[in-house]
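Morning!

This is the sequence you dropped in the shared folder:
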Amino acid sequence: MDFLAWTIIACEIGFWVVILAGLITRYVFNKKRLGLFFLALTPVIDLLLLVVTATDLYNGAVATQVHAIAAIYLGVSIAFGKSMIRWADERFLYYIKKQGTKPEKKTGYAHARHSVKGALQHVLALIIGGGFLFVMIYLIGDANKTEALSQMLKLWALIVGLDIVVSLSYFIWPRTEKVNRHG
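The structure's back. Tokens below.
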């Protein structure tokens, strides 16, 4: 595995480490400002990945699927970052601190609306990450060197389209609450 692939892995691990550090600092040590500082580091991790990816391409690397995954990671991180932090915050507060209400599993139309919101965030991620892919394709200016980026962009657009279809299907066939028959 190359340096860029390891950088993506390190950024993903770093993303969750700073979130966990922020939550522990905020709720266990009651240092709200320091906790917020850690949570605010997540965009710095994204910037680091962007710099590493751009530098690799600037130095003449042929664009690979790893470069495309870096763009996808950036788009997803930016579009979903705040909601992922909120998700982790709610669960940490309930399961670790034993405070607040238990995060509820959505059913019915509440689940459908939540799923569509997630699909729209996925569209935003595609716009952001796809924008990075388009910029890389344009700046490299050689279709042979950017084929992996173009193919990944097409695949991602297909996946986002499927996400939208599945999310909308929940309005027709809403998720029902599972009944516990064994207790």
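Headline: The mean pLDDT is 90.

More detail when I'm at my desk.
O.
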